C-alpha cells in the first residue's frame, strides 16, 4: 500500500485552506483523482470515521481496511468526526461540510465511511448519487433505507451484532442465569441496535436469558442506579454501548473507561458484551462482532473497484458473518465462575 496519512479534526480551517489551494470548494464537481489518469500513481482513498482516532472501534475498523488494501497502490488518509464526544448536531454539520470541501479538493477515487454519523452528516447530503467518488460504508446499524442505500455510487457493509449467540454463551457459563438487564446509552446508534433486538425477538423467539424492558440510559448517574438495582433484580448484565453517557453535574461525556471501572467495582453479576471494544473493559464474555471484519469487507469492496473497476452499484451490500468467542478468565475468577474447558478451548479471544 502507498503512503498512509492520519488527519484529525482538531482544526477545521486546515481543510478549507487545503480546498482553496487545490481550487476546490462546496460547488465544485467531484471527479476522479490523479490516479485515474496515471495508472502508475497511487490512488487516493479517504476513510471517514464517525468517531475519534483513540476510539477502539475506529482503530480496529481502520486496521481491517489497511489489511484489505495491503499491497495495493493506494494512498489512504483517515479522517474523523469525533461524534461520540461531540454530539452537537450543528458542530457535526460544520465538520461534515469541511470534510466535503476537502473531498472536493482532494478528488479521491473512493471514500470509505464508517458508522452512522458519517452517513447522516457526510455521505447522504454531499456524496450520495454523484458520479465520483465511489463510496463504501461499514459499521452501519440503521436500516439502510433510512439513508437511501444502496445508491448509484454507494454500497457497503451492514453491521449485525450476535445477541442470540452471546446470550447462549453466557448461559452455558452461568447455567442458573434466567434474566438479564440490557444497558446502553441514549445515542442514535443505541436506538438502531435496540430496534434490531426487538426485530430479532419478534422473528426468532426469546433469547436464552429473558430481557427486561428495552430502553436507553442518558447519564452516568442513571447508569449507576440501574447497575445497583440490577444486583437484586437480575442474573446478568448485557452491556451494549456506554460511550455517550453524560455527567449530570457537568454535562460532559464520561469516558467509557471511567464508566466500566465503576461498573466492574460495583457489579457482582456476569456480564456479556457484543463487539470487540469490550475486551478492554473486563466484561466476562460474548460472541463479538468484529470492527476488523467490518473494515476488511469495506476495504475489499473498495479494492475491487480500484483494481477491477467494479463500481459500488454492481457490488451487493454485505453483512458481517464471523463472530469471535471472547472470554475473560480474570473476570470469571473475580465472579467465582468456573468456565468449562471446551468453552475456553473455543475462544478466539482469551484474557487470562
What do these coordinates show?
- The protein has helices spanning 13-22, 34-37, 56-68, 89-106, 116-127, 163-173, 188-204, 220-233, 256-266, 291-308, 329-334, 341-346, and strands at 4-6, 43-49, 74-80, 110-114, 134-140, 154-158, 179-183, 210-211, 236-239, 271-272, 285-288, 318-319, 324-328, 349-351.
- It is an alpha/beta fold.
- The longest helix has 18 residues, at 89-106.
- The radius of gyration is 21 Å and the shape is globular.
- Mean pLDDT is 89; it is low at 2-36.
* Protein structure class: alpha/beta
- State Rg: 21 Å
Write the element-wise H/E pattern from the N-terminal end onward: EHHEHEHEHEEHEHEHEHEEHEEHHE
Kindly state the percentage of residues in helix: 25-40%
Here the CATH topology of the largest domain equals Rossmann fold
Outline: globular
Give the end-to-end Cα distance, rounded to a whole number of Å: 35 Å
Task: Specify the biggest β-sheet.
Answer: 7 strands, parallel
In the CATH hierarchy, the architecture of the largest domain is 3-Layer(aba) Sandwich
Strand portion: 15-25%
The CATH H-level superfamily of the largest domain is: Response regulator
> Which segments are poorly predicted (pLDDT under 50) over 5 or more consecutive residues?
2-36
Amino acid at each position: 500500500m502507498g503512503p498512509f496519512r492520519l488527519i484529525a479534526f482538531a482544526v477545521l480551517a486546515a481543510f478549507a485552506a487545503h480546498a482553496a489551494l487545490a481550487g476546490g470548494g462546496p460547488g465544485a464537481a467531484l471527479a476522479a483523482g490523479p490516479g485515474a489518469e496515471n495508472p502508475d500513481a497511487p490512488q487516493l482513498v479517504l476513510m471517514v470515521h464517525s468517531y475519534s482516532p483513540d476510539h477502539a472501534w475506529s482503530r480496529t475498523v481502520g486496521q481491517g481496511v489497511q489489511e484489505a488494501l495491503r499491497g495495493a497502490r493506494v494512498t489512504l488518509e483517515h479522517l474523523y468526526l469525533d461524534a461520540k464526544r461531540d454530539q452537537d448536531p450543528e458542530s457535526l454539520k460544520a465538520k461534515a461540510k469541511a470534510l466535503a470541501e476537502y473531498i472536493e479538493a482532494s478528488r479521491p477515487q473512493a471514500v470509505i465511511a464508517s458508522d452512522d454519523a458519517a452517513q447522516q452528516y457526510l455521505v447522504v447530503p454531499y456524496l450520495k448519487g454523484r458520479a465520483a467518488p465511489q463510496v463504501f460504508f461499514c459499521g452501519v446499524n440503521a436500516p439502510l433505507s433510512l439513508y437511501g442505500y444502496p445508491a448509484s455510487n454507494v454500497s457497503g457493509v451492514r453491521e449485525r451484532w450476535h445477541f442470540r449467540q452471546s446470550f447462549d454463551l453466557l448461559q452455558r457459563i452461568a447455567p442458573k442465569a434466567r434474566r438479564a438487564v440490557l444497558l446502553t446509552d441514549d445515542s442514535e446508534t443505541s436506538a438502531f441496535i435496540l430496534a434490531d433486538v426487538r426485530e430479532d425477538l419478534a422473528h426468532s423467539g426469546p433469547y436464552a436469558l429473558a430481557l427486561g424492558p428495552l430502553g436507553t440510559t442518558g447519564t452516568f448517574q442513571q447508569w449507576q442506579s440501574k447497575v445497583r438495582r440490577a444486583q437484586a433484580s437480575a442474573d446478568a448484565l448485557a452491556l451494549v454501548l456506554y460511550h455517550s453517557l453524560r455527567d449530570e453535574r457537568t454535562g460532559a461525556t464520561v469516558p467509557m473507561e471511567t464508566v466500566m471501572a465503576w461498573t466492574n467495582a460495583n457489579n457482582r453479576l456476569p456480564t456479556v458484551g457484543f463487539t470487540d471494544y469490550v475486551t478492554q473493559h473486563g466484561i466476562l464474555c460474548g460472541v463479538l462482532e468484529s470492527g476488523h471484519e467490518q473494515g476488511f469487507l469495506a476495504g475489499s469492496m473498495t479494492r475491487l473497484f480500484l483494481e477491477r473497476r467494479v463500481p459500488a452499484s454492481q457490488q451487493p451490500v454485505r453483512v458481517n458473518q464471523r463472530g469471535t468467542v471472547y472470554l475473560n478468565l480474570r473476570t470469571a475468577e473475580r465472579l467465582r465462575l468456573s468456565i468449562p474447558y471446551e468453552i475456553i478451548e473455543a475462544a478466539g479471544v482469551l484474557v487470562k
